[in-house]
User: What shape does this take?
Amino acid sequence: MIPGALREAVARDGEQIVYVPRERLLETMTWLKQTPGQKFDYLVDVTAVEFRDRERPLEVVYFLRSLKRKADLRVKVELNSSEELAVDSVWGLWRGADWLEREVFDMFGITFTGHPDLRRILMWETYAEGNPLRKNFPLRGRFSRAEQVRQALNASPEAHYSMEELSIAEASDDLPEDMRERLKRGERGVIPEPPATP
Amino acid sequence: MKRVGEVKSENFLLAKFENLVDWAVNSSRANSLWPMPFGTACCAIEFMATAASRYDFARFGMERQAFSPRQADVLICAGRLPFKLAPVIRRIYDQMPQPKWVISMGACASTGGIFDNYSMVQGIDTIVPVDVYVPGCPPRPEGLLYGILLLHKKIKGESLFDAVRRREEQPLDDKGLRLAPETIDEISEPFGNSVHQFRSA
Assistant: This one.
């Protein structure tokens, strides 16, 4: 293991959990994926936990699996809620992290630095009430029910989807060149570039 | 059975023109409803059971399910409706030609059910007008069939000549709502067990 990267390792209920400091996350994850004998080639899930106990930091949890070795590992990063909630994105290592990190961003407001397209995924992009799974978020939302209904009814159903999501993937080859180009750019007008892997 | 007219002899029947027209129109409408299924959750499973051979709502004139709102008479919302789907069901409702009816199937569609939280519409009657509420979680197929028969009864009681007995849905108001904000807040209030639930820091 990389010296100093492992803050704490525990085995609980037959699961191995390692705690990694935030600034060493990407380095550790790269090592876990690429080192022979580790080869965690599959990112099962990314999620986060906020505890009822306010002193406890938020945790971002990564579930790793090595398909070859049939081994599991849970990697946790602790974030103090008083500081900025941000960790490095692992999208460069596992493409599957794309939507998983977007969901954590949507529900907890944790920023994944280096994510190519970090925007809400479950709630709509104009959702203004906050991050629903945070403990300071009221169960029924911040707005009145009437306001929630008003905002919902005034939303355009198509606005939930980007152009590329509305297009049919298989028909892409049959489309004219300029339209294909436009769809590839997406609504945000940029083709996402993968971040440089260290 | 509503009394339409009076049989005077074997050869003629005396009836008010309005009653006769209403009887003819409403019977045809009620006995040939084309449902537009809007299934979002487990109620849709019971809906499918109602449509399948064992319960078979084709027996009640719902022979053809219209999976397009433009060829449908009755919208059946089977399942919970999140706020994200609210504009979708409203647009589907708006696309259906008049006359049209709505059945709210199950606890979640009717009241929000157990989902008294930030993401769920507390009763689809805040979005579209509802004619029949079918309670249950989910309702059994018999429940839905009973709701459909109640809708038949309601349709047969409507009148082309009496606006009170057939109220058309108005377009959304300038705020984009179909009910007054106070009304929405009132009917969305927690009730039952959920009055005890206030989860926040």
About this structure: Strands of chain B lie at 5-7, 13-15, 35-39, 74-78, 101-105, 132-134. The helical segments of chain B are 17-30, 43-51, 86-95, 107-111, 141-156, 181-187. The two ends of chain B are 58 Å apart (CA to CA).
